[in-house]
Amino acid sequence: MPKITVYSNRWCPYCRRAKMLLEHKGVSFDEIDVEAVTGARQEMIRLSGRTSVPQIFINTLHVGGCDDLYALEQQGKLDPLLAG
After folding, report:
1. Residue limits of the Glutaredoxin domain (predicted)?
2. For 37-44, what is the mean pLDDT?
């Protein structure tokens, strides 16, 4: 199984939507709340080059945000990434 990391916050609807898709896929993921964890937002920006949440990583691959995750799903490219 790949290591999945989701940078998010509690109130973001796009974060909830992205996590719902990952949960539907039956994969576990680490969630880092950028408002609760000191330095997490800066780390996310450094790794992704983006300031908005969610930002999703599969292993070391930055797949982007919620819309990017759903685009991968629609293109049939998400399952191979999740399979490792």
Report:
1. 4-63
2. 98
Positive or negative torsion for Cα 38, 33, 52, 80: positive
Candidates 3.20.20.80, 3.40.30.10, 3.30.365.10, 1.10.150.390; correct CATH number of 4-83? 3.40.30.10
Token pair 């509690």 in the structure block, residue: 10
Q: What is the pTM of this model?
A: 0.95
pLDDT, one tens digit per residue, over 5-39 is 999 999 999 999 999 999 999 999 999 999 999 99
11-27 b/e (C-beta count within 10 Å ≥ 16 → b): ebebbeebbebbeeeeb
